[in-house]
Amino acid sequence: MPISYYLILAFTLFTIGVVGVLVRRNAIIVFMSIELMLNAVNLLLVAFSKMHHAGVYAANKASTVGTDAQLFVFFIMVVAAVEVSVGLAIIVMLYRNTHSVDINFLNRLKN
Amino acid sequence: MNLVQIIFWFLSALAVIAAIMVLVSKNPIYSVLWLIVVFFAISGHYILMNAQFLAIVNLIVYAGAIMVLFLFVVMLMNVNTETDPQRSLFTKLVGVISGGCFLMIVISLIKQAGELNTKDVLMSGGNIGLIETLGKVLFKDYLVPFEISSILFLSAMVGAVVIGKKESKIEN
Amino acid sequence: MNTLVYLIPLFPVIGFLILGLGRKSLSKTLTIFLGCGTIFTSFIISVVLFLNVKNHGAMDVHSLFTFIQSGTLKIDFAFQVDQLSSLFLLIITGVGFLIHLYSSAYMHEENAEHFARYFAYLNLFIFSMLLLVLGANYVIMFIGWEGVGLCSYLLIGYWFKNDNYNYAAKKAFIMNRIGDLGFLLAVFWLVNKLGTVSYSEVFATAHQLSTFDVTAITMLLFVGAMGKSAQIPLYTWLPDAMAGPTPVSALIHAATMVTAGIYMIARSNVLYNMSEFTMHVVAIIGLATALFSATIAIKQNDIKKVLAYSTVSQLGYMFLGLGVGAYTGAVFHVMTHAFFKALLFLAAGSVIHALHHEQDIRNMGGLKKKLPITHLTFLLGCIAISGIPPLSGFFSKDEILAAAYAHNPIYWVLAVVGAAMTAFYMFRLYATTFLGTYRGNSEQASHINESPKSMTIPLIVLAILSVVGGLVGVPEILGGNHQLHHFLSSVLVSEKTHHMPHNTEWMLMGISVTIAVIAILFAVNKFSKKPELNDAEGLGKILSNKWYVDELYDKFIVHPLNNIAVFFKNVIEKSGIDAAVNGVGKFVLYGSRQIRLIQTGQVGTYILLMVLAFVLMVLIWINDGYIYRFITNLF
What we know:
The structure holds three protein chains of three kinds.
Chain A: H1 3-23, H2 27-57, H3 67-98
Chain B: H1 3-24, H2 28-48, H3 52-77, H4 89-111, H5 131-140, H6 143-171
Helix pairs in contact in B: 1-2, 2-3
Chain C: H1 2-21, H2 28-56, E1 61-70, E2 73-80, H3 83-106, H4 112-134, H5 138-156, H6 163-194, H7 199-205, H8 211-228, H9 237-240, H10 246-255, H11 259-267, H12 269-274, H13 276-298, H14 303-323, H15 327-354, H16 372-386, H17 392-407, H18 409-434, H19 442-445, H20 453-468, H21 483-488, H22 502-529, H23 539-544, H24 549-595, H25 603-622, H26 627-634
Helix pairs in contact in C: 1-2, 1-4, 2-3, 2-4, 3-4, 3-10, 3-15, 3-20, 4-5, 5-6, 6-8, 8-11, 8-13, 10-15, 11-14, 11-15, 13-14, 13-18, 14-15, 14-17, 14-18, 15-16, 15-17, 15-20, 16-18, 16-20, 17-18, 17-22, 18-22
């Protein structure tokens, strides 16, 4: 498959994530949109990994070009898991304090 | 159109539609479920590209652990359709239009990318996505980052506990 | 010998730093020791250097370090010791030391902190003057030039709690600044045309200058000299400088400051010889100043004011000497003038000290018996300044007069009239102060005592110098061989020579001395019995009001300038500059208040802006804003 297909797919997903952040006020949905964006990036990284691998695969079947990108995806997943655990803890705190998950309450950046 | 292409288009359509459904759903529980569908579709893409390890990890970590966490939280808070806060129609319109502009710009840029458009992705072939290959590299070249990420997990655990505990103290 | 040169200015500056920084903790005794000791050390070194120069000729230029380097222009921090500067070194440190010594008694009533401040200023003053004289180029001279201006400001305003004194200090400083501007422009002109400011190189390449350049440079230098040496029209600061303590006046008038202009022109004699026009201007200004201030001095009643105007007048003579090419005569007169004017000021200070700060001569009189040493020394000073042989003033003044006659007999006539007036007002001052009967109240009279030794010793030393100082320059006609002339001849080489028949010279001397003696007898006769006690009337009133020059300056220069300043302040500044500046501020304030509305504090807004900004950035930079191309590329 041409790489541009993957590019467009990944960016479509990413844009949907961005729009999600923009249009929803529910903190959990916003958080999920962020996860969506992360996954779009992951998908693109894997696609690029395989694109680079395709360049040398014909000459050397045992080549390991492209493993780095896949490991990056692995680390992104690790960080995402960390982020989710802390982020959800924060959302729970927010809910406890305000009895709502509306991110409009989080406007302290103004001051 | 061969089988790979059919699966590609199917998975892509599934991912995009499911992603849109995440935003459109009024009930957060449905949003979570639709997001799980997106992750499954993306895992399908990984398998299509013979990145088996990532496909499995994606399913276990994202669809399995993270999304279950989300579900827990949603249920814990008892957020339902009535209490879900909504933005005004104008704000939504602005968000969608600016997002659309962004997508258009990026697609336009991809179209102009020249050499990149001639490149292909290796489907199904190659063994770099196998656990054996990745494991060797991970524990040889990326051992230190791997260990550091474990410390990151530990600190995240501690952080989550501290955030959760602090409030109860104040309540007492 | 090289290191000795650096030591001369080093000691006063060390004294200045110690006294200035430690003024709160030094005792008076220590202050006197440091203040006088440093100058005395410099004096000893100056004597050594002077003898060295006398026996072996001028020393090389000693460069301490490169002061300014820019392109091909290289200005060294260099010292030059030759006949001219070594002579000035002697005058400055010698007379300066005596004044320091005198000050230690005169200023003893001040409290310790201010006492040390006073000596610190004095040391800085001497240091600046030494720098001025020692510098081997115009820039170093300019540093000293500015330094003496600053020190005169500090010392005139020494009693800074009195506003009038502060005004006098400011006046001196501003008048000097006007002159300094001329000096500075001249230096720039030199740099532009010759690319160097060091004396030796300037004088060696001076012939490359066009007549216009030379005239402009010398005229600008002369403007500087006008300010520093108190010539018309920039002389008014010097009489007002009397606000400072009396020893300071002595220092300004005799050893430092006002002689700077003479030194500078004598030093630049090569340039001045090239410009006939400037020489004429210098001579005429000098003569005019000499006469003008002599007339004012006749009607002054403040003992220090009379001396101040006499200084202006004597400086006029020196400039006359310079203008007619008698550089040696001018320098000679600087030297003798330093002796007798320092003497006169210090003696006047002694009188003021004895009378507890009474300065009006109408309240004095009959002090001859009460202050014998002061009286005698003051009398010697008066005779010396009046030009009676064989005291020092006669020789130097005669040399200038002779040169003036050789140049133009009218100059001579006017100069002799001025000399007669000098004799007249000096003996009017003497007679009113010391002869007759005491006119203050009797209670004061019983308290009048002769000043302490540390004040009378400098008086005696200076009196001796005033008497014998002229002997270094006895002209050939009187059997001398004018040692000073021979000594300075290598520096002041291009002097115009004037040979007159001996008969003429005898006649000139005779006339001037006779007129001076007549003026003296007339003055003593007139004022010893019946001094002028009432306010003057008619012409006398104009004279006692100094020809209303201060008022004229006030009306025609100061007031218009003030009015312009007020106009600028009220109209241009308020509605122009302030409005613009405040307008910018207000606009920014208003604009930011509007822009602040964007900052809702909600993450969503920020992300929206981020996305829009990304879109805009890509549109503007990646494709130069051709949105159409984006659309065609899309499909």
